[in-house]
Amino acid sequence: MMALLSAERSLLSDQRPTLVRYQVLAVACSLAVLTYVQRQGFIAATPYIKSDLGLDDRQMGTFLAVWLWAYGIFQIPGGSLADWIGARLSLSLLVLLWSVTLAAVALTVYAPAAGAFAIALVLRFGFGAFQAGVFPGVARIVADWMPAQQRGSAQGWIWTFSRIGGAASPILAVWLITQVLGGWSQTLMLLAGVGVAWAIGFWFWFRNRPEDMPSVNQAERDLILLARPPPPPKPEPLPVFSFLSSPSVWGLCLMYGFVGFAGNFITSFLPVYLRDHRHLSDATTGWLQGVPLWAGMISCLSGGAASDWLIRRLDSRKWGRRLVGLVALGLAGVATILTPTLSEVWQLTIVLGAWMFFNDAMLGPAWASCADIGERHAGSLSGAMNMTGAFAGAIGVRMAGGWLEAGHYGLMFGVFAVCYVVAALCWLLVDVTQPLTRSAEELEVEAA
């Protein structure tokens, strides 16, 4: 965040804006941590849920995929909700609802054996549906609160903290399940309680826009609006034709879809693969599952910062956003195809870390691109992008369950590698200098 502050001082050296935007960014980062602690804590519990419910790998694939289907279906509604009613109400409500749903999943341990899996499946769908709006809502916050020149770095910080939560969660969850609380049900209940507390605190503190926060002075409001296109005379509905005809929208969505197909394996099916197919111990599976997320923590921050730096260095917003994703995703494909060829734990540690490092380096530029292109419709665009990633991810984990059951490891990782190469090429379609909506000046010219 110091890098953001120094960049802003260089832009407005004669002003002393307040720093409330950093408090807002810190709260957004805390939500990213919470989201992944609950999400990956749930994933870390899946081997124990699988054992307790007597599921095979194909059924487990369905259980993992249903979250992604729900997550995908409700992305655009979740993003549009944040654009419509603001991030304050939408995020408070969604965090509360998904935390209650997580608590309900924990109670399925007491359900009759014949119906426990079906009940857990429905609740996991609900968990995914409510979580769908979180990062589109965060994109709404970034679009409203961060200067355009630092959105890549801001998104990098948010996704870095998401990976901190995701990396710590498997180790924490396994420790709570096996050593402290004595079961996955009690662990999920604890995680749900933390979410309820966050939702209440956020509702009482946050405001949707800088002008609604009394502690924000005029200098900070001016800084946040710096280099942002002027708003139209009145709010516009989502420009559906421009949305569907934009190469940038298609590029972002297809890119995220191919990454989702390949990358969701490492964030959902990895503990099952390591424990049941690589035959690693619970302890080794727990910390090795966290390694990719620690690597992602570093790359999220560096990817977003690199994108903003390239914009200044090349004096090109278009290529500043493109280059990081283009190069990183190609290298992710290389790391992916090496995974089944390695036998030693230290080798797996390196290649899984590299896989996630290059996978996550594109997150800051991608989500910043949604704010750059979408502006007032940043929530809807980020929801569409994340929806495509979730749907493709659901297909990917479902197919991965069949490949694992059949022992087709080489085929599975080979397909994942090809997806990364295609995703890298999709970045060539993305041009953040072509926003979806017209500025006030353009509307006035058209009216004249």
Task: Outline the secondary-structure elements.
Elements: H1 2-11, H2 20-53, H3 57-73, H4 75-85, H5 87-106, H6 113-131, H7 134-145, H8 151-180, H9 184-205, H10 218-224, H11 240-245, H12 247-277, H13 282-314, H14 317-338, H15 345-360, H16 363-374, H17 378-406, H18 409-426, H19 440-447
Helix pairs in contact: 2-7, 2-8, 2-9, 2-12, 3-6, 3-17, 4-5, 4-7, 4-17, 5-6, 5-7, 5-9, 7-16, 7-17, 8-9, 8-13, 8-16, 12-13, 12-17, 12-18, 13-14, 13-15, 13-16, 14-15, 14-16, 14-18, 16-17
Characterization of the model:
- The chain is mainly alpha-helical and 448 residues long.
- The protein has 19 helices and no strands.
Question: Could you provide a short overview of the structure?
Answer:
With 448 residues, this protein is mainly α.
